[in-house]
Amino acid sequence: MPELPEVEGVVRSLRPIATGKTIQSVDVSETIITSKANGKEAIIKGADVDVFKEALPQMMIERIDRRSKYIYFHLMKDGIPHLLVSHLGMSGAWFYVRNLHEIEEEKFKRHSHVIFHLEEGDMLVYADIRRFGELRLLESEADHPPLLLMAPEPFDQDALDHYLAMSILPKYENKAIKEFIMDGHVVSGCGNIYATEALFRLRMHPARKVKRISKERKIQLFNEIVIVLLDSIENGGSTISDYRSINGEAGNMQNRLQMYGKKNCPICGRKTLQKTIGGRTSTYCGTCQK
Ligand SMILES: [Zn+2]
Q: For residue range 103-113, what is the model confidence (pLDDT) as tens digits?
C-alpha cells in the first residue's frame, strides 16, 4: 500500500505536468458505473457518476499537494475553488499520457477507471487494479470531516508535540507502539513499511505498550520515523506490490529497507518473527528489538 513517501513521489511528478491544465471531460469505466449502479461506493465517493462527470469539466488544476497519504488537486472554476481528493488505496496509480497504449503495464492499462481529458489531447488517468482507491470531489476539506482529524504533517513543527500529547491519552497508552504510530490521528502517513523500519532502527519491539516507553525514547522514535520517511522520499519511495509512481516508474527505497519483508535480521542473522499487531502483520527481530 502506498505510504507517505510514495504519495509524495506521485505529487512531485504530477505537479510540473498537470498544474495549470483545464479538465475538458471525464470518462468513467463500465466497471465503476456498474458497481456504483449496484450501490457500491467504487472509487468515486460521495457522488453519483453523472454528477461527478458533469461537475469537473472547465475546472482548472491550480495546485497539487500531498496531505498525509492523500493527493489534493486544488481546482478552480468560475472563481470558485474545489478540491479533488485522491487516495491510492492498495494499488491506485496515476498516468499522464496522450493515449492509453502508453501505459506499459497491461494490468494498469486494463484497470484505467477514471480518465480526465485535458486540453490538447492530454489525459490524466487514474488506474486501480483492486479498486480500493478513492476520488472525492469537495469544495474544501471541511466537507469531509475525517480529513480535518488527520495528525499534522510529520515534517511540521507541531507534529512532535501532537504525537507526545496523544501518547498519554488513556485510549492510546495501552496500545502497542506500532499500532500507535500507524494511527493517522497520531502520525500522518506512517504505514506498515515505515513503522516497521523505524522501530527496527531504534531496536524497539513493535508490541511494546506505549505507556512502557519513556518520553525520551518516544521522541527518538518520532525522529526516526521522520528520517525514514525523508530517506524514502529521496529514494523515490518503495516499489512493493502494485505501487507505481506516475507513469509506472519504480522507486528504490525497497532496496534500503532493513526489516520490512525480511526473512533474517540484518544484524544478528536470526530468523525474523511475525506477529499481528493492530490487525497488521508486523515483522521484527525477537533478539534485537526489545
Ligand atoms: Zn536481530
A: 888 888 999 99
